[in-house]
Each structure stands twice: as structure tokens, then as C-alpha cells.
Amino acid sequence: MSDRSSVPERICLKCGTHIRDERSTVCPQCHSQGLRAATFANSDQQLTLDAHRLIEERRQAGLEGLVGGLEFIVINTEPENQRAAVDELLARTALGVTDAFEDADARTVVLQHPGSADLLITSRKSASPFAGLAEHPRSKHLPSTRLETFAFTCADVAEYTRIQRLRGVSFLSQQPLQGQGSRFIQTRPSVYTGLSIGLFEKTSATTSHRHPSSIDLDWDFEKPALAFLQSIGRLDHAATRVRAEERDAAILEFIALTNYSFDFAIYVKSLNSITNVARLTASDFAMVFTSGIAPFSGLDTSAPTERFTNNYGPRTHHLAWDTEDIDAVYAGLMDDGQGFLLDLVGSPDEGLKQTFTTMSPHTLLVNEYIHRFGVFAGFFTKSNVTLLTAATGTQ
Ligand SMILES: [Fe+2]
């Protein structure tokens, strides 16, 4: 008679079934091959050690300082949703349309705001390297819709590519692409995040996002005359949700490809959630990774973060916009018909006030609005993180 307690229990990543037969290589319920140990739980001890080791390796490889801050983000949409996605961003952020063009690969609309990373809203006309990543219950109806790329400034894209290839990194093109006053290359999408990291080198004082073959797109957009939009500022951070068991790998991969460091993590045990922050400097755009502490264990028993990666797959959950008057922004958005996942949380005394909108049907992204009050030296507060995470439970 076997001792059941000595058999390592595993969980199916797809359906959450617990598997006690150690000989099983597939889930008896859904036949998925994605099984992992049921006892897995994240901790920061190993991650912190690995992050320090990676930064040293990065320095020795000659990468330190080669990559700078966030230059632009690429959000691809279904072709029929592209213009609506742009109109929505015009009515929800400080961004304005500065260019619209097309070439053989895509139609692209460029949105900009001084001091903030650019947003490129694209719709592809050719095969996508991100194809198949939306095969999840609540994202498969929009197979091409995804925040695809975070692109960072790079002092020398050719040298970066040479060094990273030696370290085993794969790129979407053999050579850097020549743009108008720029060079650009991007990595293959990550298996942990579904994201590509782009490297953008300015080679002239006047750069654009166009390729040499780009032609004008005859599309007109109008910025709505909404007073509260003047109180919205730059992109503060983005948060990407990853599976619990892939948290370390996702963060370490990002550190290896950029000049970012792992800064800190906030654990919310009651919601089985970790908010992990990677930073370049205290004033730069921050890259946030959110994961479970323990992995997905089924829709009925998992908390919001793990449910989200099950429902949508690992992907960027929200873009957070800085504001100097969040009360006015919140009231203005409500008047304009915007839905929210929760009311404003936090206070000037706590140093931080935030909220989440509902998810955009055009981009599958949530907008966060964040007001940092002058005396607040921290980045997040645990109470706000808890309330914001809980509010995503309906997604
Ligand atoms: Fe956030």
C-alpha cells in the first residue's frame, strides 16, 4: 500500500486539477501537459540574489548603461478597433495624435505628450510574431489585441544586439531596422509575459516612428475639449500580470534585457498576490510585474491575479497615468461615462490616491490614474495595492 502523503502533488496549470499520481505526465481532466508542483510559493530571497548576479553579468558583458528609459510602447489592435482605440486614448489621457502612416506591415497612429513615452497604436497587415498568445477564455475573441512592446532608448543598437546574441537572446529581425533617423530592433516575445523588448537608437536630431517606405494615412482625429485632461500627465508605470511560478523568470528576463533593477515587492497574502516593482531611477517610468504567491488552483479557489492570467493569459494589465488633481480627473471621467473598477482609494495623508477604470474593449487594457502627493517618499502603499488588486476580481 502506497503512502499518499509521500507522493508529490501537482496541479494542472490549465484547469487547476490536483494530480496525485506521480507517473502522470498529462492532466487526467483536460489532458494538458502543463503540470507543476502544488507546493510552489514565491519568496524574494532567491529573486534578490539572482537579480544581483544578473546585474553583475550585465555589467561584465558591457551592457551597463547601453539601455536607457522608456521611449515608446506598441499596442496592436484588431483593424476594426484601431481608430476607436485612438479616440479612447485621446479622451482618457493627455496624449495627442502627432502622426498616422502605413507601410507593408501595419497601419500606425502615434500618440505623444511632452515628457511621456509615446504610444504607437498599430494594426498589422501581415503575420504576427505574437500570434497564438491570446488563446485564453476572455482574450481569444481579440486574437491580435495586445500591448506588444516596451521600447527603450539605446545608445548603440548594433552593439547591444551583438552582445545579447552571445547571451542567447533572439530578435525578430537579423539586423536592426533603419527608420527615419533611427535604428530599431526588438526581441522575440517572452514566453513569460508575451512582451517584446524594443531598442531604439536615435541617429539624427529629427527622428520619427516611420520607416523609409511609410506613407501618410488619411485619418483625422480630434482631441475632445475636456478640461480634466489638462490634469493628466505622463505615463508613471505599467503593470504586467504573470503566472506565480514564472514571476522570477519574467523579472530576471526583463532585467537582463534592460538597465532596470528589481526594487521591491509588496505581498498581499489575503489575495495571493505580489506586486513587484523594477526601476531604472526614482524618476523614470517603472515596470511592475504582478503575480500570485502560489499558482493558479482553479477558478473557484484562485484570487484575482491568478484568475486574470488564466482568463487572459500573461499580459500587461494596466497603464498608469500621473495626475496632479485626481479628484477632478475622476469626476470628469465619470461625467464622460467612464466606468471604474473601484472608487478612488488612498488620501493625501497616505501620500497616494489611485483608481482603475474598467478594461477597454479595444485594447484590453485598464487605465490607472495615480496622484502622488508631495511628502510621499514611497512608490506604492500596501493598503492601496490591496484595494486595487481586489477590485480586479471581476475581470
Ligand atoms: Fe498600477
The gist of it:
The protein has three domains: 39 residues; 182 residues, 2,3-Dihydroxybiphenyl 1,2-Dioxygenase, domain 1 (Roll); 153 residues, 2,3-Dihydroxybiphenyl 1,2-Dioxygenase, domain 1 (Roll), CATH 3.10.180.10. Helix content is 20%, strand content 31%.
Describe the structure.
With about 400 residues, this protein is an alpha+beta fold. The chain has 3 domains: about 1-40; about 45-55 and about 225-395, 2,3-Dihydroxybiphenyl 1,2-Dioxygenase, domain 1 (Roll), CATH 3.10.180; about 65-215, 2,3-Dihydroxybiphenyl 1,2-Dioxygenase, domain 1 (Roll), CATH 3.10.180.10. It is about 20% helix and about 30% strand. It is built from 7 helices and 20 strands. The protein has helices spanning about 45-60, 80-90, 155-165, 245-255, 305-310, 325-335, 380-390; strands at about 10, 20, 35, 65-75, 95-100, 105-110, 120-125, 145-155, 175-180, 180-185, 195-200, 215, 230-240, 260-270, 275-280, 285-290, 315-325, 345, 350-355, 365-370. It has a 9-stranded mixed beta sheet. Strands 14-15-16-13-17-20-19-18 form an 8-stranded mixed beta sheet, sandwiched between helices. The protein has a 3-stranded antiparallel beta sheet with strand order 2-1-3, with no helix packed on it. Strand 15 and strand 16 (about 285-290) form a beta hairpin. The radius of gyration is 21 Å and the shape is globular. It starts with 9 loop residues before the first strand and ends with a helix. Residues about 1-5 have low confidence and may be disordered. Fe (ii) ion binds near residues 239, 288, 318, 320 and 368.
